[in-house]
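Final paragraph of the annual report: two paired records, presented back to back.
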Amino acid sequence: MHAFEIITVSIVGLFAGSVGGLLGIGGSIVMIPALTELLGPDQHLYQATAMIVNFFVVIPAVMLHRRAKAIKMGVVVRLVPLALLAVLCGVALSELPIFSGDNEPYLRGLFGLFLLSVCGYDIYRLFRRRKKSPLSTSPTPQCHIDGANRESDGIGSRNESQTTSWARIAAIAIPTGLIAGLLGVGGGVIAVPLQRRLLGLSIRQAIANSATVIIVTSALGATFKNFAYQANYGSVRQPLLLAATLIPLAIVGSTYGARLTHRLPQRTIKVAFFALLAIAATRLTYGAWLSL
């Protein structure tokens, strides 16, 4: 890479780390679209790179979440085994012929469509909530949804053993791991809303749990994906060098972003999440469509 590319890629790392630390998502949804814009399309290279960077992005974030006592270890310990198996399956799926060689735009387009579906669900929930709000006379349901007044217990009035049943855990861990392995993302974009929906956790606790799970899943996913990249596309030196350029400022950004998670209003966090997904999804899907 030229000097200008090194500087711009480093800035991408800073921004991706900040978003990853803030939202507990690893930062891939920023890195992959941004690298595609800067360096040209190469989805497998960027996924192999992003999985390495995700590991380093979430470590400082998890340390801060742990200090804030936001991590629910009982949930994390159950999520990890199934998520690990699902990550391996996801990476294997990403290496199928339908996503290789000249068919690489299909994988890029799938990534964009995935982000669009998340945006669509967020819009649906936003309008649904606005429609219901005039009929509500009590603030209690909103507090339950956002977890704003339940940061200490996380699961509210539900029975904890019931809400962390293996059926609910599987419904979170399996799609999280599959998406992480198939598309090279941290998986938090799925894990955060599912934890809130199925376990009743606050957004801060869901983010903290997601970041903790990503430490393990990204380490295994990066190893598996980079071995596959070495075998099928080129030297593993390429993703390693690109990751080395991204990591230093990504760690700085992650540390800052994780602090903001516990300081910013929850509505601000949600709006930032939605806006980022909408932009990345539109650019990726459109670019893949042009390639095809």
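The closing record of the year follows.
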Amino acid sequence: MSSKIIMKQIIPFLPHDIKTILNGCSPFLLDKVQEIRLREERPLMLVWSDGDVMLNLKGNEAKRKEDAYLVKKEDLQKLLQVISNHSLYAFEEELRNAYLTVPGGHRIGLVGKAVLVDGRIKLQKFISGVNIRISREVIGAGDKVINFILGKNGSVYNTLIVSPPQCGKTTLLRDLVRLLSSGVPLYGFKGVKVGLVDERSEIAACFEGVPQNNIGIRTDIIDGCPKVQGMMLLIRSMSPQVLVTDEIGRIEDAAAVEEALNAGVSVITTAHGGSMRDLQERPGLKKLIENKVFKRIIFLGKTKGVGTLERIWDQERARNLV
């Protein structure tokens, strides 16, 4: 449950006032939390899949901004000091990328004033907003689809997982990595070598090189690396049978996927969208869809709650499997 995760893994590095507020929250408020939002001089907020809530000094819901706790500059400064281990200089890369991952796999997003050098972001300063995104590892999330992506003789179908934001595609992808890597005895699948390009440290949630999530026994991870470079590095160095990465969409992403397929490697990845039309309107995905690169396209949504399996499209036979 989110309340236990927040109490054990998040609260210890929060500034005193916010720590006190969250300690006062009821488990009912914390159990559904996906994000904790800190914006300077604006209300402290908890974000759920279907909305958000402002908090007052006692950790209760505030109906009006005037009754809510307003995040102070000092709160953000203290938080940055703790998560950077009191060394903002060593924190420069994270400030440039606008996020970091902390123990437990939780991702902390940062926004402020961008400092540009030669037209590129060198770092951010005057951090004014922080998004603490709660990582939830859902063991078993992939059970409902794994049999649809396993082929004959231990093969794995090229698969695209599609959903709007915060509908569970990364959660599903993470568990599929675990299953493909460790094997699925129920289907006589022994497991394969998986190469994982975890560009934003959200799948394996590595902390100092060690995955915080269960991503299986045969998974090799390249963490914090752009997808295109990471896929090529893994193909050259680790001989994966399946490549996994999150959120493709650019033309260069599509080219990397095609290169992996030409090397005889299966690909499992995700994309934002809610329909085939959405995919075909994105230049990087349009070609892959037209060429029927993905044998399975899995659509997730919210019709019955976050992560609802809406349908599985068999692109080869042009029919719904679910």
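The chain is about 30% helix and 30% strand. This concludes the annual technical report; the extension proposal builds directly on these records.
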